[in-house]
Design goal:
Length: 497
């Protein structure tokens, strides 16, 4: 008989605002499926010829991962033959006696045009992040220093505003003809913006808690039975202790240093904390594996874009000058042509960023928490997808948008000023704005298609759940249909309309 699990200890203390996110040492899901060190094939055939029993990977639940390693092999073989075919087509289409064949490729030249200059711009943008450090440095003195006053808070917020929109304007004007470069640098600027915001508001929040604890401790000497003072003291102390790692001596405000900020900027994370789990060493073979994956995936992307997507995109742009009846029919035809290649690109771009690149950066920086995504492909609602597609950004939105609104107190009643629904609405609203800005940077058009569709996720999630809550397979089919059609349709509309 299986042993009963012990019930977790009930937390009777105050609810912590910054106890919402925890980091731990863990690998990404795909790395867990296929181990780097040994095969994960299971089944009667493998067991027949295997001398050692194959261990399953333990999860947080009682379930074991079902291994489908053979299908991974089949999948990669399929990709190999498709890419081989597209590469041959690519070579034939762009072969020339006077140029290397890739020099005639629109996609290839766009991706690598002025690459040293692009790298320089990205470096300058990264270095400009450090201008926020002097603002937060004023909180360093702790008991005697500045608290997170309105003046400092507004200064930090103003810096974020100037940083983002200045770089948005610079990127837009420096690369007027290269949308690939524009969208890359724009998305990177958003990453830097989130890092800046999290760093500023984390330390600002902790400075408030330190001040409250010190002041409450002083007043309790004169009024030891004041329950309000006791609550303030206990809450502030617990919030500060929650961010302290017993294995290390560093705690707020000693974490405010240029070295600590620099280390944070190198991690593949946009939520600041004093400590993160770290690995003891860098696995250079693993780094090599991910670098090969990065360049291999980029090569695959170029081929898919050049052979399958670019001709369709040209056809969509041409629709701007066609009559309405023809335009609608042609749009439907081109959309069906675009969907297979678009969903393929959609998935491999996700793999490139959230598995290959982030794992590579994490390994080089010895960052141990590799939960950059969850099994979003098993989603049955859009709410699931929004959480698991990009866990890194989800953690940021959870802490700095959703919980930030939820923890705003009414000054008269002391109760939360905003409901969970309002907090969720604001989370989607802010996310939708940045999605629309990304479309503007890519297409140079203000159409608000992506904004509307992003906001539509709120009612769609509710409807989706009500209709299919008892039919998870049907719900997942509906989800995948939406993923296949939705992004391709949005891009088609921005190109054709």
């Amino acid at each position: 008989m299986a042993e009963k699990k012990a019930k977790p200890e009930e937390n009777t203390g105050p609810k912590l605002q910054y106890g919402d996110i925890k980091f731990k040492s863990q690998s990404t899901i795909l790395d867990s499926y296929i181990s780097v060190n040994n095969s994960k094939f299971t089944g009667p055939i493998v067991k027949k010829y295997s001398k050692k029993s194959i261990e399953y990977i333990e999860l947080d639940t009682d379930d074991k991962l079902i291994q489908f390693s053979g299908f991974f092999v089949l999948g990669w073989m399929f990709i190999f033959f498709v890419i081989s075919n597209s590469f041959i087509q690519f070579y034939i289409m762009n072969k020339s006696d006077s140029h290397y064949f890739w020099e005639n490729s629109i996609i290839w030249t766009s991706m690598f045009d002025k690459l040293p200059f692009v790298a320089l711009v990205d470096l300058v943008m990264y270095l400009s992040m450090f201008l926020c450090y002097p603002i937060i440095r004023t909180l360093k003195a702790g008991k005697k220093g500045s608290r997170w006053s309105k003046k400092i808070k507004y200064t930090a917020s103003l810096f974020e505003f100037v940083f983002f929109f200045s770089w948005m304007a610079i990127i837009y004007n420096l690369f007027p003809e290269n949308w690939i470069t524009r969208i890359f640098l724009f998305l990177h600027s958003i990453v830097f913006l989130m890092k800046i915001h999290s760093y500023c508001y984390y330390n600002g929040f902790m400075s408030e808690r330190l001040r409250d604890m010190v002041e409450a401790e002083k007043k309790l000497k004169d009024s030891p039975n004041d329950q309000e003072l006791i609550k303030v003291f206990e809450y502030s102390k617990k919030e500060l202790e929650n961010q302290y790692d017993a294995k290390h001596s560093l705690k707020f405000p000693d974490n405010i240093s240029l070295k600590n900020f620099f280390t944070y900027t190198t991690f593949p994370v946009v939520v600041y904390q004093i400590y993160y789990p770290r690995n003891e060493r860098i696995r250079w073979s693993y780094v090599f594996e991910k670098i090969v994956a990065i360049f291999g995936i980029i090569f695959v992307m170029i081929n898919i874009a050049e052979v399958f997507m670019y001709p369709t995109a040209v056809g969509l742009i041409a629709l701007n000058n066609s009559d309405e009846e023809y335009k609608l029919l042609k749009l439907a035809l081109l959309l069906t042509e675009l969907i297979p290649s678009f969903i393929t690109m959609y998935v491999i771009v996700w793999y490139l960023i959230w598995d290959a690149i982030l794992n590579c950066i994490a390994e080089l920086t010895r960052f141990a928490d590799r939960e950059f995504y969850a099994d979003w492909w098993n989603s049955v609602t859009w709410d699931d997808f929004s959480k698991y597609w990009n866990v890194t950004v989800h953690k940021f939105l959870l802490r700095h948008v959703f919980h930030a609104f939820k923890n705003v107190k009414n000054k008269k009643t002391g109760k939360p000023k905003y409901s969970s629904l309002v907090s969720m609405f604001m989370t989607f609203f802010i996310s939708s704005i940045f999605h629309e800005l990304a479309m503007f940077m890519m297409f140079k058009k203000k159409r608000y298609y992506i904004f509307v569709l992003q906001m539509a996720q709120i009612p769609l999630t509710y409807i989706h759940y009500k209709l299919f809550k008892n039919y998870p397979i049907v719900a997942n089919v509906y989800f995948w249909f939406s993923i296949c059609v939705g992004p391709a349709l949005v891009c088609s509309l921005y190109l054709a309309c």
